[in-house]
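F.,

This is the one I mentioned.
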C-alpha cells in the first residue's frame, strides 16, 4: 500500500471526527432503534446509573506508528477489528475480536507467535444479567475510539451475535451470516469458511443483519466499506467449553480457532490485493 501524505491523513481524520458518514443532512444522530434503551454510546456513557468497569467496559488497542521519514510516509492502517456488543451482550464476540486481531483472549499474547496484529475496539457488557439493555445499534455507535479507529483504517471487520430465530433457522443451527459493504472481503470470508468447513451464508437477504447501512460503524472506514459477521448463538456456544464471562477466554475450543484462522486468512488475502 502506497504511503499517504501527512496533510491528507489529517484531512481525512478531521473530517471523520467532526461529521462522518453516519450523520444525517442536519448533522443529527438518527432516532434510537426501537429495541435499544440508549440512542447512542454517548447517551449510555452519560447515564449516572451506569458505572464503567462494573456495568460495562471498553477495550481497544491502536498500534503506534512512526512517521519521521522525509521521503516515505507511514501508510494508513489496513484493517480494524471491532466488537460493538461484546461481553454478555452478544457472548463470544469479545474473545473472537481479540483472537482475530492476533491476541490470545486469555493471555493477550500475540497468537500465532510473530503473526500479524490489527487494531481493535470492543464495547462489553459486564453485568451478571440484563446486558441486553446496553446494546446500541451499530448505526448509532458514536464511541470516539471506535469512530477514530474505523475512520483511520482502509478496512473494517465487525463481530456480532444473532439468534437462529432472527434468521429463520431451526434451533441449534450453527451459522455465520457474512454482510457489510465490502464485497471483496465478503467473498474471501465466504470462500475461507467453505474451505474450513465453517457453515456460512451471504447476509444479503437478511435486511436487519446484512450490515449494508453506510452509517454502520464498520462501514465508516476510509473507503466507506467493511464486513460484518453475524454468528448464531449455537455457533458461538460451540466455541467454548465453559460459557461464562470469566471462563470463555480460558476454554476456547477447536471450533473457535478454526473460525479465527479462516477469518484471518480472508483478511490476509484482502490486504494482499
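My design for it:
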Amino acid at each position: 500500500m502506497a504511503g499517504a501524505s501527512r496533510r491528507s491523513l489529517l484531512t481525512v481524520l478531521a473530517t471523520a471526527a467532526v461529521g462522518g458518514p453516519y450523520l444525517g443532512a442536519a448533522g443529527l444522530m438518527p432516532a434510537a432503534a426501537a429495541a435499544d434503551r440508549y440512542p447512542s454510546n454517548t447517551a449510555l456513557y452519560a447515564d449516572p446509573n451506569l458505572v464503567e468497569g462494573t456495568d460495562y467496559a471498553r477495550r481497544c488497542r491502536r498500534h503506534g506508528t512512526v512517521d519521521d521519514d522525509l521521503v516515505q510516509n507511514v501508510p494508513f492502517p489496513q484493517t480494524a477489528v471491532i466488537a460493538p456488543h461484546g461481553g454478555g451482550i452478544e457472548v463470544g464476540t469479545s474473545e473472537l475480536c481479540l483472537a482475530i486481531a492476533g491476541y490470545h483472549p486469555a493471555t493477550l499474547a500475540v497468537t500465532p507467535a510473530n503473526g500479524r496484529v490489527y487494531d481493535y475496539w470492543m464495547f462489553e457488557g459486564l453485568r451478571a444479567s440484563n446486558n441486553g439493555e446496553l446494546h446500541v445499534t451499530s448505526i448509532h455507535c458514536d464511541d470516539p475510539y471506535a469512530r477514530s479507529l474505523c475512520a483511520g483504517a482502509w478496512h473494517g471487520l465487525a463481530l456480532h451475535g444473532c439468534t437462529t430465530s432472527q434468521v429463520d433457522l431451526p434451533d441449534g443451527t450453527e451459522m455465520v451470516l457474512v454482510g457489510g459493504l465490502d464485497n471483496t472481503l465478503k467473498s474471501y470470508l465466504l470462500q475461507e469458511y467453505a474451505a474450513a468447513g465453517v457453515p456460512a451464508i451471504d447476509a444479503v437477504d437478511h435486511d436487519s443483519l446484512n450490515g449494508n447501512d453506510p452509517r454502520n460503524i464498520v462501514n465508516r472506514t476510509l473507503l466507506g466499506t467493511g464486513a460484518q459477521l453475524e454468528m448464531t448463538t449455537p455457533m458461538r456456544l460451540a466455541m467454548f467449553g465453559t460459557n461464562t464471562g470469566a471462563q470463555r477466554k480460558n476454554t476456547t475450543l477447536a471450533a473457535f480457532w478454526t473460525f479465527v484462522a479462516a477469518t484471518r486468512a480472508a483478511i490476509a488475502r484482502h490486504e494482499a490485493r
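The mean pLDDT is 89.

Talk soon.
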